[in-house]
Design brief:
The chain has 16 helices and 28 strands. It has about 575 residues and is an alpha+beta fold. Helix 7 (about 270-280) packs antiparallel against helix 11.
Amino acid sequence: MDAHSRGRADEIDPADQWVLNPQTGNYELRLDHSAGQPRQAAPSHQSPGTHRGATPPSQRDRRVQVPQDRAAETAPPVPGQRRRRAAEPGERASASRRKRKQGSSRKKKVLIWTGGTMAFVLVGGAAGAYALYEHFDGNIKTVDVAGAGSGGFRKDEAFNVLLIGTDKRTGDGNAGYGDKNSPGHADTTILFHVSKDRTNATAMSIPRDLMTDIPECQSKLPDGTTKTIPAQSNTRFNVSLGQSDRDPGCTMRTVKAITGLTVDHFMMADFNAVKEMTTAVGGVKVCVEKPVKDKDSKLNLPAGESTIMGEQALAFVRTRHSFGNESDLDRIKVQQQFLSSMIRQMKSDDTLTSPTKMYGLAEAATNALTVDTGIGSIKKLTALAEELAKIDAKNITFMTLPVIDNPAEPKPITVVPDPVKAPQLFAMMQSDTSLTEVKQKQQDAKNAQAQAQAALLKGERSTAREVRVDVYNGSGIQGAAQSTINWLQNDNGVTRSTNKSNAPQKAAKTTLTYAPNQADQARKLADLMGLPATALKPGTQDAGEREPMTLVLGADFKGAGVPLTGPAKTPEGAQTADKQVCAK
C-alpha cells in the first residue's frame, strides 16, 4: 500500500501524512499517527520516460477525496515546500530562505493547464514545490506529435500553446455528453500566444465548425508505427483530431496552416478536467443575466452570480441553448467568461493559501492532462509555468477567430475565416502585438484626435506643409526612407520632412513618435500614410516650435504610400481575464 492509500484508508488527507523532521529539515512520510513512529523519507524525483504506462495503477487512476469539513487553513504546508535536497538548476537554493520568503513565494504562480473546456488555471505556490513530484509526474500522459511542434519553446522568444478539449466520453459520469461514437474530436480549441517579453497573452478560440483544409500529417499509432493521413480539403476544423487516426499533431499543423503561426506545444484533456478542477477549488463564480434551466445540458441557474462546480460547471461550458442565438460562437463566449473566472479564482488568496486545495488541483490537473513529449513531465511543465506566471490576468485577452457565415451554404451552418479581419488578427499575433496594447493605443489616438479638434477651434489647423518629421529606415529595405520622403514631399506636400538615413537598429514595426503639442501633425501624417493606432507613440513633454516628429519605418513597411496591414483597433468581442462578464 502506498502513502496515498494509507492516508485514504484512515480518512486522512494525503498531505497530512508528511511531517517535518526537525533533525534533518526534510519532510518525511509518517507511517502512523502515534508519536515516535519511524518515518520514511519523501520520494526523490526520477526522470520520467516518454511512456507513462509503467506507473502503478494505484497512482495513476486514483482521485483524492478531501473531507468537506476539513478547514483549509489548518492543513499543513504542501509537502516538500521546505524539504532540503540538492537544488536543480533554476530552483531555490535553501529551505530556510524559502521559509522566510513564504509570502513572496505565494506570489509566484505555477500554471497548470487542463482541457475539456480549455480550462487553464493559475495555481499559487513556488515552482516545483510538491514532494509528491514523482506521483504527479506519473499522472501525465504524452503523445509524440511527429515533428508538428517546434521542439520546445525558448525563454527569449514568443511561443504558442494549443489547448484542446475533446468530446470523447471518457471518465465517470460522462456517457451523456458529446457524441457517443466520437473518437475524440477537437470540440474546443484555443491558440494561446505568449508575448516575447511575457507581459501579455492572446487566447484565440477556433470554432469547431470552421471550414478549412487539413494538411497531410503523420500520427504515431499505439503499436509504435507511424501512419500518414492524406490531406483533406474543405472540411470542419474539429475533425483535425480523432478522425482517420489524426492525433493532436495534425491539429497543430492545421492551426499553423490557418494562422501562419508555429504551434510549439499542445495540452489536451476531456470532460473530467472541468468537473474535477472546479470541485478542487470549491467552485467558480459565474454570472448570467437571466435565469437558466436547460433540459439538454441540465444547467439550472438563477439570474445573477452563482458558484458552480462539478457537473454544473461542465453543463455551463457545454450548453448551446441557454445564451445568445444558441450557436457554437455564443458557446465560445460563455467558455471564455468561465475561463476568466477560473483564472481569477486560482489567483485568489483563498486558493493560494490552502495546501489542501493546492494538492487537489495538482492531482486533478495532472490526471486530466495529455501533452506532447516536449513538455511531458512536471519539470518541463514547471519551466513553462515559470514563463507564463509573469503574465497578469488583466493582460490575458480572450477572443474568437473572426469568421463569417459560409457563403457556399444556402442556409449556413458552418463558418469560414473573415477575409479581412482574420488576416489582420493573424498579422497582429505574428508580430507579437498585444491586444491590450492596441486598446491603449486606440485611446491614445482618440486623445490625439481630441487635441487636434481643440486646435481646430483655435484656428490652428495643421496643413501638410506644417508637418515636420524626420524619417529613419529601420525596415531593412534599401532606400525605404528616401522613397518615403519623395512620396511625402512630391505627392502630399509634406515639404518639412527629412531623410535621416538608417535607424540605430532594425525595427519590427513602424512607429511615429510625437509630443503632445504635435498631436494634430501626428494625426495628419498617420492619415496620409495609413498608420494604425498601434504605430502612434505619444510623448509626455511638448516639443519646440521647429522640433520634428520621428518616423521609424519597420519591417512591416510595404512601400511608400502603401497603408500598413494590421488592425487599428481591438478586434470585436475581445475581453480580458480580469473582468467579470455576465452571460447573455
